[in-house]
Predict the 3D structure of the following.
Amino acid sequence: AQRVTQPEKLLSVFKGAPVELKCNYSYSGSPELFWYVQYSRQRLQLLLRHISRESIKGFTADLNKGETSFHLKKPFAQEEDSAMYYCAVVQGAQKLVFGQGTRLTINP
Amino acid sequence: DTGVSQDPRHKITKRGQNVTFRCDPISEHNRLYWYRQTLGQGPEFLTYFQNEAQLEKSRLLSDRFSAERPKGSFSTLEIQRTEQGDSAMYLCASSSAGQAYGYTFGSGTRLTVV
């Protein structure tokens, strides 16, 4: 079964500093990966998907098949980026397998 | 609000009681998912519907759990004979076939079994 590992439960950086949230996956084929975000008192929402190669709110994530990683990066953190971030991989035909999440705190 | 709605938002029940949760997906979404999330963990898959058909169930879904989506619209998740270990946030999500796994999540139902 596919697994997702987010090694950091907590990550704290200063405003304006670069941010990298780590995600490693186990998958034997071509994975489909996502980042979801949950801001305080809000519902879980899709941030970005690797297939789209998009940048959302300044965040990007590159799939590295050699390292089986899909780290989320932002060059300059903002206070409004403080949230829970979940990496997820598609398993089977339909369902997502989530990592345990990383709580990102941006200090002023 | 045209998002995914879940009811109730919170439920406190005594051990051994039955509880039922409801999820109303986005109307044009034919796929509906139930997930469970415990403290410090990511959401865990429970079950999935395409229209009214329940196509997959997790091993996490014991015999005490049952889910339905009778007309391919709203869904219910029932837990019979609740146990303290059932305490969690129960999340519903929906998607359409063309969204390629871009789920829209509801706010969840927080269950506390005392």
